[in-house]
Amino acid sequence: MTDRLDGSVRLEDVAKLAGVSLATASRALNGSTRRVRDDLRERVLDAAIALQYTANAHAQAVARGRSDVVGLLVHDIGDPFFSSIAAGVIQAADREGLLVTLASTGRDPARELQFVRALRGQRARAVIIAGSRVDEPAQMAQLAREVASYRAGGGRVAMISQNRLPVDTVMLENRASGKALAKALVGLGHRRFAVLAGPAELFTARDRLDGFRQGLTGAGVSLPARHIIRSDFTRDGGYEALQQVLDADLDVTCVVAVNDVMAVGAMAALRARGLRCPADLAVAGFDDIVTLRDVTPSLTTVRFPLEEMGSTALSLVVGAEGVRPRLHAVEGQVMIRESTPSLG
Amino acid sequence: MTDRLDGSVRLEDVAKLAGVSLATASRALNGSTRRVRDDLRERVLDAAIALQYTANAHAQAVARGRSDVVGLLVHDIGDPFFSSIAAGVIQAADREGLLVTLASTGRDPARELQFVRALRGQRARAVIIAGSRVDEPAQMAQLAREVASYRAGGGRVAMISQNRLPVDTVMLENRASGKALAKALVGLGHRRFAVLAGPAELFTARDRLDGFRQGLTGAGVSLPARHIIRSDFTRDGGYEALQQVLDADLDVTCVVAVNDVMAVGAMAALRARGLRCPADLAVAGFDDIVTLRDVTPSLTTVRFPLEEMGSTALSLVVGAEGVRPRLHAVEGQVMIRESTPSLG
DNA sequence: CTGTTAGCGCCTTCAG
DNA sequence: CTGAAGGCGCTAACAG
Predict the structure, then answer these.
(1) Chain B 279-298, CB below 8 Å of chain A: which residues?
(2) For the HTH lacI-type domain, which residue ranges apply (chains A, B) (predicted)?
(3) Distance from CA of B4 to the nearest CA of A (A)
(4) How far apart are CA B230 and CA A281, in angstroms?
């Protein structure tokens, strides 16, 4: 019962109790390629259990030169979009025996930088950066630099969002999905739209809008500039944007928000004004957030397999490194539901 | 440009470039109490930047005997209840300069054990265990043992849920909140209830039910045993339980689910049967999940400040250790909304 | 198959 | 204030 000040038991204690050398104890306990005679192994294992021994992962990391943690960066873990992705990452990491350390950047690119640096300090085996990039070249350049030096140290990187850095990435087909949504809505008979477009600098928001507009154009439908409302990428952003739509008295039959939480905010704003969805206005979103599948009327959206995207990102980052960055494109699936009825 | 195989820069490289000793470089870079002459410090800092040096956190951890990570255990990070708590923990950890490694146990007590063990291996400074305990003495005993040996090694522990282990805990006042909800609903004129009670072994579910029942009793209202429906603690559990209520043809005016996601599932089941809430049946839940605040009709619930609970737990675990476990009780706040109209 | 012995990268007394 | 040297706990050659 070696009781050191910090109370933790060292491998040496185990070895001593088992009457073997440090090396043998190490080999018996922590997966080595080398074999240990059965009776010795047995004694070591027993000693370890008796002492409640747990290897010091830090010491192992410095000795082995690598660690078993991967970092995950998200914009906001409280946002269901990211918590679903996190669930996928964690589940996959678990299967690989990896621990994930999670950082929530609060959508601040500076904190993002700071965290990949911290993760580099942790010698994390890999880092996964989830969430839309922002159109600010200076920040992208800084991130690229930090990522490069992390990779130079042997770290692996994957991104979930846009394909804008030369690393493995799980890319959302935002443009294509916007286009598909437009076609579907036009197919339902809608012709006059407004878009709650989110921040102009956010690529995800922008791509969805661009795709949507392109889809409309392809169908011979136009989207006036004043029908594009900017606001935050959040529930409250959707709420405010819809108020603007109403206040500007835009003559539309359908409003599409660039994500589900905005769409739900928009629906709330409608109700607050005494209007009803879809009777007075149809609403659609993107993502198919699980928790939102039971809102009424049920929300038309473009589904992305968020959890799966998380586990895909992890697999990208544990597998053998490719010669060139791999790109895993994920298509969205249009889900027509009650919030956008046919205008037939 | 000392280019070692693993590409990472060591403190020695920085020292060499700055023309100082290892010790001086260490003191200049990583917060030491000792001061370094300004010009030398300057040179070291410059060298560090030039080389993109980042201290190896593992080496620091083994040298210092402590690390800067805290572990967070949740049942399911995809569940908004836990992602809100996680958001609070992470935000508070961030303020303390701590990194959070997150484990999602999938509600499996065995994995929970395994993770606190892993976190012990990481020499995590603290671990926060969130989520209801289960009434299985054997498992509680094992967890208690693992926790004890983690604490013996100097680790700090906090729990978010019940006060059932001798550690700092953020305790939800589930009984009291159930009672308060009962009183409020009775005050609205309801007398005949059914409870979607979740699993019997889950303390959170059980305490909410018990409190609710107690509140009814205090108001002279009874709750027949067959009005208590067991099911999973999930959206689907709520859905199925409500079907049972309907199939059993229970004559009730109000159904209360032991959490919000179950309540939403119940509302969905109602709609699926062509019934309406609250016209045909009132529904209430617990938690006040953010994402669910825009469902219609808006859901009566008992609000718990989830994020705040997360940050409280973190603060418990970083502050000075108390002589005895501290208990931080959190009261729920009854929020009457549209789903439970007055029967006046 | 086992034990001895260098490291891994950093911190921190201990001399100077 | 600075530098040399030992130690943190573990792994991985290297001998035996």
Answers:
(1) 289-292, 294-296
(2) 9-64
(3) 9
(4) 39
